[in-house]
């Protein structure tokens, strides 16, 4: 039975959604096309009607995962307009986010995988990272203080680096107290950076 164009596009979007979650859980090379397509409710044979290659899917899934992450940042900011930076930091550096393998930060989940892939996969991550930096620059610029644009950009980079690093390390260690200590310390340090202090 022939699939309509509308159904084919819906199937494609389903595969991208499923891949964005399963790649974060297993890595790009940790799940095969058969299992990925099965999780999307489709056969492996349908894959090549929708994507040029697995790398094509990796690019699309990375974009989707980074868009989803950006939406979660926006939701956190909207829920707490009095302290939007604090809301993002508390959400991102939480034990709950640490435990989220399929819906968590794609930079943490797939960053090292992306670094070993081609320019197009890296470009997806670069675009998402730039979006995060722009959000942090806006939030830092709302923090009291008279700063140059260059200093705001530097703070945003330092904050994003600290957040990604702390979440990554917290996922690597077994000791839950040590993991939480990394997250809590990063929360405090982000506040200090935003306020112009280093503690």
Summarize the structure.
It comes from Azospirillum melinis. InterPro entries: Homeodomain-like_sf, HTH_TetR, Tet_transcr_reg_TetR-rel_C_sf, TetR_C. By secondary structure, the protein is mainly α.
CATH fold-level topology: Tetracycline Repressor, domain 2
CATH architecture: Orthogonal Bundle
Report, as a whole number of angstroms, the end-to-end distance. Answer: 65 Å
The helix count comes to 10
What is the radius of gyration computed over CA atoms, rounded to a whole number of angstroms?
19 Å
Give the class-level CATH name: Mainly Alpha
Number of DSSP strand runs: 0
Class derived from helix and strand content: mainly alpha
Instruction: Note the beta-strand portion.
Output: under 5%
- How confident overall, as mean pLDDT? 92
Which stretches are poorly predicted, pLDDT < 50 over at least 5 residues?
Answer: none
Based on CA inertia axes, which overall geometry fits?
elongated
Helical content class: over 70%
Taken in chain order, the helices and strands follow as HHHHHHHHHH
Q: Give the domain tally.
A: 1
Domain HTH tetR-type: 9-69
Organism: Azospirillum melinis
Keywords: DNA-binding, Transcription, Transcription regulation
Protein name: TetR family transcriptional regulator
Describe it for me?
The longest helix has 26 residues. It is elongated and about 60 Å long. With 199 residues, it is mainly α. It is 75% helix and 0% strand. The protein contains 10 helices and no strands. The termini are far apart. It has one domain: Tetracycline Repressor, domain 2.
């Amino acid at each position: 039975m022939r699939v309509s164009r509308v159904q084919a596009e819906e199937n494609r979007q389903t595969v991208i959604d499923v891949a964005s979650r399963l790649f974060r859980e297993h890595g790009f090379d940790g799940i095969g096309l058969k299992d990925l397509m099965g999780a999307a409710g489709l056969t492996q044979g349908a894959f090549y009607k929708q994507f040029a290659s697995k790398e094509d899917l990796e690019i699309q899934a990375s974009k989707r995962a980074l868009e989803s992450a950006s939406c979660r940042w926006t939701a956190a900011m909207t829920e707490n307009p009095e302290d939007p930076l604090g809301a993002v930091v508390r959400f991102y550096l939480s034990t709950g986010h640490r435990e989220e393998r399929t819906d968590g930060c794609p930079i943490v989940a797939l960053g090292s995988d992306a670094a070993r892939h081609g320019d197009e996969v890296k470009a997806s991550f670069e675009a998402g990272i730039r979006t995060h930096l722009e959000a942090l620059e806006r939030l830092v610029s709302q923090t009291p203080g008279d700063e140059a644009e260059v200093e705001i950009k530097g703070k945003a980079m330092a904050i994003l680096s600290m957040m990604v690093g702390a979440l990554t390390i917290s996922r690597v260690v077994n000791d839950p107290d040590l993991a939480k200590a990394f997250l809590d310390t990063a929360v405090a340090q982000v506040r200090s950076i935003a306020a112009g202090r280093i503690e």
